Structures are given as structure tokens and as C-alpha cells.
Amino acid sequence: MDVVSGDERGTTERVLTLLGLLQQRQVWTGPELADRLGVTTRTVRRDVERLRTLGYPVHAGQGVGGGYRLGPGQDLPPLLLDDEEAIAVVASLLAGAGGAVAGEAALRALTKLDRVLPTRLRHEVRALSVSVESFGAGRAPVDPEVLMTLARACRDEVEAGFGYPSGGEVRRRRVEPYRLVVSDRRWYLLAYDLDRDDWRSFRADRMSEVSARTWRFRPRAAPDAAAYVQEGVASRAYPHQARFLVHAPADTVRAQVPASAAVVRPRGSELCEVLSGAGSLDFVLVHVLLLGHDFEVLDPPELGRRCRALADRLLSAGAAIPPGPDTEES
């Protein structure tokens, strides 16, 4: 067991205090820092070198107007936050993660801060976060506490439970949470459903009474979280699924179709496969038609027959109008 001496603890505390001072003001002279820390300017120089070793880019200027300045670096070193700054950062992330402004990055940052946030600050963060709201269309709102509970369960690999509507009633689900996935509209949890013995995705805004248990689990081999959830949202959730080969680059089609409406996979540089679902085959067929690209039906075979029926209807609808000068007659 390593024992940290009092001198080492004093040096660490002093270096952290020095870092906090450098983050508060643009430039400090050596004598100013020495006076604040109660040490000599030589000790300040040594502590500055310690910060540089840790990855903090502390620059030293000479002459009039010179001094020590904390600048940007290639990597992002740890930040030193006081209580008020920590409360403001976490509350802002909590308010944004469940709404339409922030997304997955906000929740990742929250789970990192959650590890080190002192217990004495948690109630202040919660009180401040509920006072912030957003407006406008966007992602379905989710209680930030729900997201944090699920994020902790994913991070700590512990089982989670929640109420979820199924067949007209709310049933309790027991899961091994794997990842939270955010789309342009909603938050989803990819988890292994222990009662159904299979992977499932759940909408976070439909959950109730979310809780994390203390029972730990060993992670299973999991599918790609984002791809699994996107395919489920765009296709498996509907009674009818369809696949098309579209004669356009995948990036072009992705710009035309929301990620929650279809999965677009490249097939070389000039073709792509589009997987989508809908309540009726005619509906999904019309949407692909309106993309404005040539396409072929891959699945299901019935969709090929719907194409011909739709073509006959379109020809019939335009039969009464005489061909214009730009119309090519076959």
C-alpha cells in the first residue's frame, strides 16, 4: 500500500490551486502567483512545469506585460471547477439532454461528471435543472433523471427495471441495459430483455418508474446499437417492410430521408439500398417514388405488383389530359 506524505499532498493541493488561478484570469505574473500561493517564484516555476507535464499548455511571456497564461492545447486536459461552476455545467447538461437542444454528447459528459460530483451538490443541481425549459419542435422530451438512471445502469452494468406500455397495458420490464441511442426525434434504450430472452429497443419517453438495481451482469455480445435501433424504428416497428435499390449515392438519399424514416446503405458509389416500413406498402412506395431517382424493388415480391397497379392508376389519371409539347409518346 502506497502512503502519500504530507509534503506530497501539500504540493498537489498547491498545483491544483495554481491551475484554478490560471483558469480565472488571462495572465498572471510570477510574483502575483507566488503571493497568492504563499511560496517563492522559484516554486511557482516548478509547479508550472508540473502542470505542463500533466498536459496543460502554460505559456510564459517575458518583459512588460509578460507572465503566465493558460492556452489551448492539442488534447483536452481535465478542468478544475468550483462548486458553482460544477452546478451550472451539470444543470445545463441535464436540461439539454432530455430536450431538443443537446444530444448524445451531453449525456456522455453527464455520466463522466456524475462519477466525481460531490453528493452535497446533487440536490442543488436537481433543483436548478428543473427550472430550465426549451421551446420549439424537436426531440420528444424525456425526464433527465430517467436518462441519468439509464446511463448509470449502462455504465455500471447493473440491471434496470421500468414500466412500459404493451398490448394496451403497462407491464414491468427487467433488462440488462447496453446503450442509450438518440435519434432526430427520440431517445431509445438498447437492452437485453430478460423476460423475452432477446434484444429490444425501448423509447425512453414511454418509460415509467425507471430504477436501477444492484444486481450486476456480465455484458453479452451485442448488436451495433445505433444500427439496431435505427432499423427497428424505420422498419421493424411497422407491419410492412420494404427494400429498394435506389440509383443514387447513399449520401444524396440520406440528405432526403430522415434517419428515423429509413435505413440507407451504400451499394458502391452510385447506388444505395433503402430499407423502410409503413402501415401500407403503397405509402412507402410513394415516398420512395417522390425521392426523384430511378429505383428497383428488392423485397417483398408483392411490392412489385403494387408498383404496376400504381403505374396503371397514374396512367389512367393522366389519360384525359392531351400530351404537351415536352411529352414523349411511346
Automatic annotation (TrEMBL):
Alphabetic keyword roster: DNA-binding, Transcription, Transcription regulation
Superkingdom of this protein's organism: Bacteria
Coiled-coil annotated spans: none
PROSITE patterns: HTH_DEOR_1 (PS00894), HTH_DEOR_2 (PS51000), WYL (PS52050)
Ranges for domain HTH deoR-type: 11-66
Pfam families documented for this protein: HTH_11, WYL
Keyword Membrane listed: no
Keyword field contains Nucleus: no
InterPro entries in alphabetical order: CBASS_pafABC_assoc_protein, DeoR_HTH, HTH_11, PafC-like, Tscrpt_reg_HTH_DeoR_CS, WH-like_DNA-bd_sf, WH_DNA-bd_sf, WYL_dom
PANTHER family: PROTEIN PAFB, PTHR34580
Protein name, entry field: Helix-turn-helix transcriptional regulator
